[in-house]
Amino acid sequence: MAIMAVQDLHVRVGDSLVLRGVDFQLSPGQIHALMGPNGSGKTTLALALAGHPAYEVVRGRATLDGYDLLSLPPHARARAGLFVAFQRPAEVEGVRLREFLRLACAERGKGFCEFQRAFPQALARLRMEEFADRELNVGFSGGEQKRGELLQLYLLQPRVAILDEPDSGVDVDSLKLIAEVIEEMAERGTAVLLITHYPRLLEYLPLAEVFVLLDGRIVERGGPELARAVGKEGFEVIRR
Ligand SMILES: Nc1ncnc2c1ncn2[C@@H]1O[C@H](COP(=O)(O)OP(=O)(O)OP(=O)(O)O)[C@@H](O)[C@H]1O
Ligand SMILES: [Mg+2]
């Protein structure tokens, strides 16, 4: 049974209709991959579902647990259990990682005592102990920002996680760590949509389904072999 269902989603960005009828479902505890060429609309999909005002949904539906997600403001979507890890996380001056996550956890019903226990554990899991009192993403290297997004995922344990290229710019050791954390999240019941260009990360993970986004639609669905074929031959394999 799916926890998230997206139907016929059309999204306009600026003057162009980037998504033209996207359909997919995400199941709890399963890892789904989304692949597609540069500019095909993967980030558009993630940000439109998160409720970014620059991404206008002009047609279609998205539900979480059967409830209409698109009628909710962004913070209510997050509170309902949707988490989006950004391709390019924003640097937020003046807000420390510890404070940011304490407040985010409180919104998800974790009290102060629970946070005091869980936060150091999450820092250790992501090997980010020295980042606890740094300002959110400020001056983080590319790979550190990606680990920071996964730290948020690990602490918040959302019901649905859309991860926009968590592997880009990440070194080999961190890639393994990120794969482990994603698998752990899925084992705890999170439905994962993993956006990536590289089958490398996918090789470490048990994939339930692979979607290929092209020309504004999901044009191909398959198992891990589809990710391998795209990785080897590019999107020509789909276009043929
Ligand atoms: N704010 C914006 N204004 C105008 N065009 C935009 C805006 N945001 C995205 N676009 C355009 O929408 C298209 C889809 O972009 P998107 O970032 O969703 O692609 P993507 O599949 O995530 O690509 P990549 O693999 O490079 O991350 C692109 O052509 C992009 O230039
Ligand atoms: Mg993108």
Mean pLDDT: 95
Q: What is the C-level CATH assignment of the domain at 4-88 and 158-239?
A: Alpha Beta
Determine the fraction of residues in helical runs and give it as a percent range: 25-40%
By CATH, the architecture of the domain at 4-88 and 158-239 is named: 3-Layer(aba) Sandwich
Provide the list of bound ligands, each named once.
Answer: adenosine-5'-triphosphate, magnesium ion
Tally the helices: 9
Content of β-strand: 25-35%
CATH superfamily of the domain at 4-88 and 158-239: P-loop containing nucleotide triphosphate hydrolases
> Mind summarizing the main beta sheet?
6 strands, mixed
Q: Please give the radius of gyration in angstroms.
A: 17 Å
Query: What is the CATH topology classification name of the domain at 4-88 and 158-239?
Result: Rossmann fold
Shape: globular
In total, the number of strands is 10
Describe the 3D structure:
This protein has 240 residues and is of the alpha/beta class. The chain has a domain at 4-88 and 158-239: 3-Layer(aba) Sandwich (Rossmann fold). The protein is built from nine helices and ten strands. The strands form two sheets. It has a six-stranded mixed beta sheet with strand order 6-7-8-3-9-10, sandwiched between helices. The protein has a four-stranded antiparallel beta sheet with strand order 2-1-4-5. Strand 4 and strand 5 (67-68) form a beta hairpin. Helix 5 runs parallel beside helix 6 (172-187). Residues 42-43, 87, 164 line the site of magnesium ion.
